[in-house]
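Q: I'm building a small set of examples for a reading group on sequence design. Run inverse folding on the following structure and report the sequence directly after it, with nothing in between.
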């Protein structure tokens, strides 16, 4: 059965050796600041991911953004990227332009409603980069013990969203949690044919993600991609297929306020607000991903909804404005004292 969960243990050494070879396979030599420093000065201090948290009230629901860190991806992952347009996009976004690398933040969120604590995604593993992997420290900073978390909602099962689920000994970090994700995401992620959209070098990452969720198999609650599902009072799982066919966001609605946590609708805030048509090679359906992005950007701009995203610059809360034929991101202001 192609879609049945595999119990094969993850070969961590294979994952690590893939990471060592990845820059070459992907046609890039430097992999962000950390490796560049290591390459040039062997005595340089290793970098570690540092966390930050940011608290926000959406009506009566508390949202805590947790910084897991940041990493860099080769620019080649972005489909349709034109260097001149990319440089102009970076200028419009007040971001540094790098022709070879796209640097992105990695974030996750925790929602506190009356009586329920919901974690949304669990960050990236530090073998991806020494500058990610601070999710657990973020929880500590927020004063939340793992055993207090009632529900873990996964926007999707890519490696940079599941790291906190299992510790280095392969044990569940959230033993009593209800694991909520879309049925499509679970099924597709265990189906090798469905995962064939990823370059074959990503196979160890797929294995890693499977290993992170499998211990929770008996605690899973799979939701439909056909409609929105209210997973807690005022908290809705919203289907946003494209990046993966089971990719979902979370909409929070309380006392006439709302927040849309859109998962991986945007990977690069530098480029994709002005070029929402640029998808990535890690999108299951790049055309559908671009359509989902454009639709949600358009809707967020029209409704003036606050948005949040796993790869927006921390604190990763803001608004979308229309600008000519594309969009612009406005970081949320702080409204002190109401
Ligand atoms: Zn991601």
């Amino acid at each position: 059965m192609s879609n049945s969960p595999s119990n094969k243990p993850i070969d961590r050494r294979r994952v690590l050796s893939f990471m060592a070879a990845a820059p070459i396979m992907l046609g890039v030599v430097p992999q962000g600041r950390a490796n560049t420093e290591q390459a040039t000065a062997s005595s340089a201090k290793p970098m570690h991911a540092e966390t930050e948290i940011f608290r926000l009230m959406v009506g009566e629901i508390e949202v805590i953004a947790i910084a897991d860190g940041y990493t860099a991806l080769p620019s080649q992952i972005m489909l349709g990227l034109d260097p001149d347009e990319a440089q102009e996009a970076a200028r419009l976004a007040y971001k540094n332009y790098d022709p070879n690398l796209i640097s992105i933040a990695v974030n996750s969120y925790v929602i506190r409603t009356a009586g329920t604590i919901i974690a949304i995604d669990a960050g990236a593993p530090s073998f991806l980069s020494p500058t990610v992997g601070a999710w657990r420290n973020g929880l500590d900073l927020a004063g939340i013990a793992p055993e207090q978390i009632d529900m873990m909602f996964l926007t999707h099962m890519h490696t940079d969203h599941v790291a906190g689920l299992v510790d280095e000994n392969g044990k569940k970090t959230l033993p009593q949690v209800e694991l909520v994700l879309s049925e499509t995401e679970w099924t597709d992620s265990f189906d090798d044919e469905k995962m064939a959209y990823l370059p074959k070098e990503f196979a160890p990452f797929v294995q890693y993600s499977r290993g992170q969720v499998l211990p929770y198999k008996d605690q899973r609650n799979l939701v439909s991609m056909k409609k929105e599902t209210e997973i807690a009072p005022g908290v809705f799982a919203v289907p946003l297929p494209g990046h993966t066919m089971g990719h979902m966001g979370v909409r929070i609605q309380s006392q006439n306020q709302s927040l849309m946590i859109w998962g991986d609708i945007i990977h690069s805030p530098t480029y994709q607000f002005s070029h929402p048509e640029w998808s990535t090679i890690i999108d299951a359906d790049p055309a559908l991903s671009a359509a989902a992005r454009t639709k949600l950007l358009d809707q967020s701009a029209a409704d003036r909804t606050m948005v949040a995203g796993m790869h927006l610059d921390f604190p990763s809360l803001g608004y979308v404005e229309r600008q000519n034929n594309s969009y612009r991101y406005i970081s949320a202001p702080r409204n002190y004292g109401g």
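Residues 286-303 form the longest helix (18 residues).
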